[in-house]
Hints:
- The complex is a heterodimer.
- Chain A is an alpha/beta fold.
- Chain A contains eight helices and seven strands.
- The model of chain A has no long low-confidence stretch (mean pLDDT 95).
- Helices cover 30% and strands 18% of the residues of chain B.
- A five-stranded parallel sheet of chain B has the order 4-3-2-5-6. In chain B, strands 16-15-14-17-18 form a five-stranded parallel sheet.
- Chain B folds into two domains: 3-260, Aconitase, domain 3 (2-Layer Sandwich); 267-417, Aconitase, domain 3 (2-Layer Sandwich), CATH 3.30.499.10.
- Chains A and B meet through helix 5 and helix 8 of A and helix 2, helix 3 and helix 5 of B.
- Bound molecules: iron/sulfur cluster.
Amino acid sequence: MILKGKTWKFGNNIDTDAIIPARYLNTSDPEELAKHVMEDADPDFPNKMQKGDMIIAEANFGCGSSREHAPIALKASGIQAVIAKSFARIFYRNSFNIGLPIFESDEAVAKITQGDEIEVNADNGVIKNISKGEKYSAKPIPPFMQELIAAGGLVEWTKKRL
Amino acid sequence: MTITEKILAAHAGKEKVSPGDLLNAKVDLILANDITAPIAITEFGKTGAKKVFDNKRVALIPDHFAPQKDIKAAEQCKMLREFSKEQNLDLYFEVGRMGVEHALLPEQGIVVPGDLVIGADSHTCTYGGLGAFATGVGSTDVAAAMASGECWFKVPESMKFIYYGKLNKWVSGKDLILHTIGDIGVDGALYRAMEFEGEVINSLPMSGRLTMCNMAIEAGGKNGLIVPDAITEAYVNGRAKRPYKFYTSDKDAVYADIREYDCSKIEPTVACPHLPSNTKQASELSSITIDQVVVGSCTNGRIEDLREAAEIIKGKKVNPNVRMIVIPATQQIYLQAVREGLAEIFVEAEAVFSTPTCGPCLGGHMGILAKGERALATTNRNFVGRMGDPGSEVYLSNPAVAAASAIKGRIALPEETI
Ligand code: SF4
């Protein structure tokens, strides 16, 4: 699968309260959540982002609460993928479980500037920076996670095993 | 092996496991709350399972926006209630019986030493204080585990934290863990188990142990753990609802990192906005004025915490510029606080004494901050917007510092008020 889109950059330790503030968690409707995506990191983000965009962040993206609403809000808003230096572990799990593509790459995070057009090959983790004509690679996805993706997420994987 | 490795191995039916191994393990208990359970219930339906794997091992606790703060929250809580009825769950806790999940489950003996517990709440790691392996997961993980009774895990590396020396006055488990997070950073234990030990831990009461393990997640940890001992035995004896097992770490267990702290050098510690790792000594912050103080949460809402705050505030008044909100974490703590006269002390001091709820801890209800307002709380997170407007600020401390600050109207040390 090839993902192509424009990038938005964020810093270190973007927590799940910044991705989707708790004040909106009296619902789990993805469309409702998407309206407030990243609002406490950048109040204008829900208005200025476009479907298909990607988020580039420094280390420990998604730290804090276990709310699956965070990757759900990102996915429902149309964010295609998140590339970060590292992810907090519950966010990492949740993203695979619900099918939000995420990649770890120090190099891509260091070299991409906000607004760059990039192309991510989700199968081999090769990231092409179309704006700059560069190429980076993401850490390979562990085999078990690939199995989850191939099954269509954790629910489908569980269904087959029950 | 470490205690983390041993508990995971035992639940996966293996003799030995090593960090990095992926395994499927049987879970002893699964929990979710009014925010995370609705998604879990919907996803559970999609697995094709008709019944949960065991109706005695799924705990649903409406504590975050309960008592139901608005119509949407009421609808979420209703989903939990209806699912619990339909599945005949033993461990559903209605308002009036509920408490903040991570205080309630150990108190009621529903989590026991040696357990493997997953919860759709990041502070599930609290139960490491009992010598259980417990970790936060997402709602979909809970859905899959409710259907299969299993969950997949990557065996984490372990880090060891040794606390020696003598604890200073007014320094408790909260200060030790804040100090530690300040030292290693909010991702200092990313993907790892945090094992706490040493002479100070050996005599730390269960309340302080639960507080320390509660905040392992604030350093990115997968779980916190304290090897069970006589203090654990005294705590679980008489309350455990299931047989329990004490695991220990082997002498030759391997740790990715070992850190030692001389506790005589640790003073009452405060985490400043907007990260739990942004710590300073409380004594350096006496110029910081505050609008609100919250004593409560799964971190510091236990009876010991309320006693500590009451001791400071007894016979005094909350500063006219401050709103003080005290929230016992469970009904049992609430009742005990009433019986011991703590409720009276708080109300006479002109603080609010609330029914159990997560409430303001996550900016839900019962004490939300306006733009520009500043709170000192005994909770565990001070991210941007955590307790209300993104332009508000949260400082984190132990209950004694919180009570002293409520009196002074600024961050203060307990001895300043005595
Ligand atoms: S008290 Fe706060 S940290 Fe604890 S479970 Fe509730 S919202 Fe989460």
